[in-house]
Amino acid sequence: MKKTRKKVRQPLTPEKVLSAALQLADEKGLEALSMRNLAQVLKVEAMSLYNHVASKEELLSGLVEMVAGEIDVPVVGGNWKEELRRRAHSAHRVLTKHPWATMLFVSRLNIGPNMLRYVDATIACLHAEGFSFPQADHVWNTLDAFIYGFTLQKRNFPLVPGEYASAAKQFIHLIPPEQFPGLNGMSQEVIAGRHDGIQHLEFGLELLLEGFERLHQNFPA
């Protein structure tokens, strides 16, 4: 009689814990990410996780690092506008892929090597082009504020694009033209199909890049 070979469980590692945590957060949101739930996914006792991650805070820091590592960083010495444009699109794409991550980026002190590399490369790219360090600081923070805000708004907006026109029709009586001429006029454009109401990352990004260029030209370092 042939003996059934017992499946050997692979040992737990910090990398496996973080990978499982990333998948859990992506699938069910950050609110579902507890040590107990993570232990169930990994089929281990919750206490054994603490041999690989010291705390929930360390787990969150590890997740931020994994996400930051997916974002393209600017090439120092490259065309600064192209590099910032590529960085912005990459950050938006990655943060959309991991919808829980944006709030962790903006609400914590994230000082892991991937995050530091991400910020450092941005500052160095701008400084190599001649931006002063204070200017570079303003530029990357303004750019990130736009990227994070745009990503959060797009993620949480209560309507999908196909609903804009019907919603405008439904609420148009609440914004009479004599009281709210701007909102009423814009809503009429959406209702008539002359404006889709969809916001695009490229629109705000190009305005920012043009503004940064004027800053650089008018106030050289």
Structural write-up:
This protein is an all-alpha fold and 221 residues long. Helices cover 65% and strands 0% of the residues. It has two domains: 14-54, Arc Repressor Mutant, subunit A; 67-218, Tetracycline Repressor, domain 2 (Orthogonal Bundle), CATH 1.10.357. The chain contains eleven helices and no strands. Helix 7 (113-128) packs across helix 8.
CATH superfamily of the largest domain: Tetracycline Repressor, domain 2
Query: In one word, what is the shape?
Result: flat
Pick out the low-confidence regions: none
Named CATH architecture of the largest domain: Orthogonal Bundle
Compute the average pLDDT. 93
What oligomeric state do these chains adopt?
single chain
Q: Please identify the structural class as seen in this structure.
A: mainly alpha
**Main β-sheet, in a few words?**
none
Radius of gyration over alpha carbons? 23 Å
How much of the sequence lies in strands comes to: under 5%
**Number of structurally distinct domains:** 2
Order of helices and strands: HHHHHHHHHHH
**Helix count, per DSSP?**
11
Helix content: 55-70%
- Termini distance? 82 Å
From the 3D structure, determine the CATH topology of the largest domain: Tetracycline Repressor, domain 2
Highest-level CATH class of the largest domain: Mainly Alpha
- Number of E-type strands: 0
Which tags fit this structure?
mainly alpha, Arc Repressor Mutant, subunit A, 2 domains, 221 residues
Can you lay out the helices and strands and say which pair or pack?
Blueprint: H1 14-28, H2 35-42, H3 46-49, H4 56-68, H5 80-97, H6 101-107, H7 113-128, H8 133-156, H9 164-171, H10 181-192, H11 201-218
